[in-house]
Write a structure and sequence with these properties.
The complex is a heterodimer of chains A (about 230) and B (about 80). With about 230 residues, chain A is mainly alpha-helical. Chain A has one domain. Chain A contains eight helices and no strands. Chain A starts with a helix and ends with a helix. Chain B is an all-alpha fold and about 80 residues long. Chain B is built from three helices and no strands. The chains are: A mainly alpha (about 230), B mainly alpha (about 80). The interface between A and B is medium-sized, with 21 and 14 residues.
Chain lengths: ~230, ~80
Amino acid sequence: MIRKTISFILIIIIAAAVFFSLREIPFGTTKSRVREYYLDNGIKQTGATNIVTSVVVNYRGFDTLGEVTVLFLASIGLSAILYRKKEEKRKKRRKSSLILYTGCRFLFPLILLFGSYIFIHGHLTPGGGFQGGAIIASGFLLTMLGCWGWEGINRNRFKITESLSGLAFVVVGLLGLLYGGYFLFNYLPKGIPNQLFSAGIIPLVYIAIGFKVGSEIAGIINDMVRSG
Amino acid sequence: MIILEIILVFVMLVGAVAAGIFKDLLNAVIAAGFVSFIAAILFYFLHAPDVAMAEASIGAALTVAIFIIAIKKTKRFEEDD
């Protein structure tokens, strides 16, 4: 009881500190000029109509590589902890009913299609590699719940997809170093804005990120399902 | 619109406190997923559809699923200390 009271008082103190220090900051007003710069020059410089994508992949592309690396490390660490050389015999699970099985098999390709749509159109509409990858991973979760049972999929397939897509991201960036002089230089033609084939390397990078995030999160779920 | 946002923020607060109080971890996980779901709606209202999609798919769906799998393999109820 006394521990709970002390922690509650601590939470109140921290909340008050955060509130009073952030109260003076005027949110929503134009304080930073970098935002204006992105909004004015984003479409001209990168060719992507979704400004968020042009910031994530082009202006701050190196940070995105770091983010993807963090996810990669999380996924690898989880596999390393949960890895077991010899799979023990698990109890035979009840097979799912016909309606559930058919529904899962019907929905799975549609979810994959929707996720791919989101990351292929990342430079035109809201969304991108992270969101599309997460949607694809939720499709894999559905199949693990519904039709393949709790047996899961061979984990090497996820790892291979993840490594190849990560390699694709780095290779695209290094080609920019070769052609333009710096990492992730946008060396392909920008094209006409609002068309699918525009914005140079942004769709390529986002497709790589989509595959990478999808296989990473699906691999994490697969490891959790298969372990113990 | 602003009234709706204020109501949603308070519902979110209730969900967050409930996630801390529940002894049944399954209920706590569902309350945390509910907080993520409301956060996704709020992000959408604040004109950030990119973040809303990420929050809805990762926070409200995948994290909850991973936690439920973990609870299934460990213990469901939190013990008193």
